[in-house]
Amino acid sequence: MWRILKSIIEFLLSIFRPADPSGEPEEIKALPHPEEPQDEGITLDNVDARAARQAWYEQWQVPDGHRLFWDCIRIIPAYKYADPANNEYWNSEIYVKPEWCNAGIIAHEQAHTAWFNLLTAEERAAFESEYYRQLISDRWMIYLNQVNWYMNTSTVEAHAEVYRYLGEKMPESLKQYYPKLY
Fold first, then answer.
1. H/E segment holding residue 55
2. Mean pLDDT, the chain, as a whole number?
3. Is position 5 within any domain?
4. What is the helix (H) or strand (E) element at residue 76, kind and residue range?
5. Around Cβ 82, how many Cβ atoms within 10 Å?
6. Helix axes 155-166 and 121-135, enclosed angle (nearest 10)
7. Is residue 2 part of a domain?
8. Which one in 11, 52, 56, 140 has a CA-CA gap of 20 to 30 Å to 167?
9. What DSSP character marks residue 122?
10. pLDDT at 18
């Protein structure tokens, strides 16, 4: 029993141990795409949704071949909802408060577009199974879960938060559930 417990503890510690010449993984200290604070200087008069979309394309490395699809999703600066942003996926519209119109918010909302418009019910269920597998084994997923409570509110929010904060660092096995984003 002690050997098993010791092995489990050593495995968990190895995830966060700094890298050394023996090949240990580097300690994770920050997310690949940290949350951008709201910018109170941005208003309906000066918001640039195109620039936010372009920043998302570049920072999340959205393939050029898929950008035309994403260009069809309208990003509308507005105070229509209480939340910083809301995705009306059935209308191909994302409403975002001007002060929150940034690449990270766009990434999160476009993951919702992929979830609702591009994944089947079976693919969503498969994502959920793989997500929970990776949540206990992938060091980036473990770290994200430690610093982000919101991804635990629902599977659809978990899907969006993984893409929004991890981007290219998410486990390879999850990328298939983000069509047109990779």
1. helix 49-59
2. 91
3. no
4. strand 74-77
5. 7
6. 60
7. no
8. 11
9. H
10. 46
2 has a pLDDT exceeding 70? no
Q: Nearest to residue 31, comparing CAs of 151, 125, 114?
A: 151
Number of Cβ within a 10 Å radius of residue 157: 18
Distance from CA of residue 34 to its chain's centroid? 10
Span 104-133, mean pLDDT? Answer: 98
Query: Which pair of tokens denotes residue 100?
Result: 């929150």
Which of 167, 87, 179, 175 has the alpha carbon at shortest distance from 131? 175
For residues 117 and 156, the answer to whether their CB atoms sit within 8 Å is no
Total domain count, the chain: 1
At 41, the amino acid letter reads G
Q: Residue 42: inside a domain, yes or no?
A: no
3-class SS of residue 87: strand
Which two three-digit tokens encode residue 21?
A: 């010449």
Q: Which domain holds residue 112?
A: 49-175
The encoded tokens of residue 19 equal 């890298």
* pTM metric for this prediction: 0.85
For residue 91, tell me if it sits in a domain: yes
Could you tell me the sign of the dihedral formed by the alpha carbons of 170, 175, 178, 182, in that order? positive
In this predicted structure, the answer to whether residue 16 has a pLDDT above a threshold of 60 is no
